[in-house]
Structures are given as structure tokens and as C-alpha cells.
Amino acid sequence: MRRLAFTIALLPVFTALAACNTSKAPPESAAMSEQVAGEWVLASLRGQAVPPPPGKTDRVPSLAVTRDGAVSGFAGVNRFAGTTDAAGLNEGRITLDRLAATKMAGPEGANRFEAGYLAALGEAKVFRVAGSKLELLDAGERVVATFIRR
Q: How confident is the model over 36-47, as a mean pLDDT?
């Protein structure tokens, strides 16, 4: 009888301990694709700050990534789209070297910026996410672009 009472008395303790461990964290690799998924606004390109243009905030250089590897965005004059390897996203890798873009004309300065932005995206090999900041790094692990979550 004492053993039964002791077991019943400890039941809430064991239940509470078990509840602490019921929500296992997803594997780190799955969490990586979750972290990069979303919409990002370009904050710096090759270490140079990219100020938002005056007026229309929907026309800022951007990057959108989905967990299944679809990518799209705005490059300054034109929109772009493509894919990256979803399995690579789960491992912290990203390849953006085969993007399709519209071909609208723009001011010379905007076209020059866009060419540099798309070139930097094409050099990206890995990414890091820390809070609301995304960094794309090249093969030498140099930051080529930094984004802030939209």
C-alpha cells in the first residue's frame, strides 16, 4: 500500500519531467531551411550599406526564399526568379547562379547596381542567419550581401 501511495505521489513529478522533453527541437539541418525561408531586404552589398530608396518601399532590392528552394526578388530595376537546391538549404548552402530576370531598361546607375547585386548573388555559396539578419557568403566565406528580414 505504501509503495502505491509513493508511486501516486511521484506521478505528477514524472509527468512534469516528461512534459519538459516532449517538444524535441527539429534537426539543425531542417532548422536551417526554416531560418532562411522568408522575405529579405538588401542592407549591404560587398560591405557597402544600401540605403532604401526614397518613396516606394516595395522597390527595394530584395530576396525571397522558400523552404523548397524557390527564390525570387527585386534587383533594383528588374525582378528575378529561380531555384536553389532545397537539400543544400538544409545544410546551409545556397546557389543563386542561374536566376532568370526581366529585362526592363533603367537609369545607368540603377543598371550598374543591379548588375553588381546579381553578380554577388551568383557568387553566394553558403548563408548564415542570426536573428533577423541573413548573410550570403562566397566560396572564400567572405560576406557578399547582407539582408534584413522584411
A: 97
Q: Which residues are registered as beta bridge partners of 133?
A: 130, 148
Calculate mean pLDDT across residues 106-131: 96
Please work out, in degrees rounded to the nearest 5, the angle formed at the alpha carbon of residue 116 by the alpha carbons of 123 and 82: 55
Q: Which fold has domain 27-149?
A: Lipocalin (2.40.128)
**pTM for this entry:** 0.78
Helix (H) or strand (E) holding 86: helix 86-90
> Which residue shows C-alpha cell 527564390?
71
The answer to whether 75 and 117 have CB atoms below 8 angstroms apart is yes
Q: Quick one: pLDDT at residue 28?
A: 52
Domain coordinates in residue numbering, the chain: 27-149
Sign, Cα dihedral of 122, 34, 129, 37 = positive
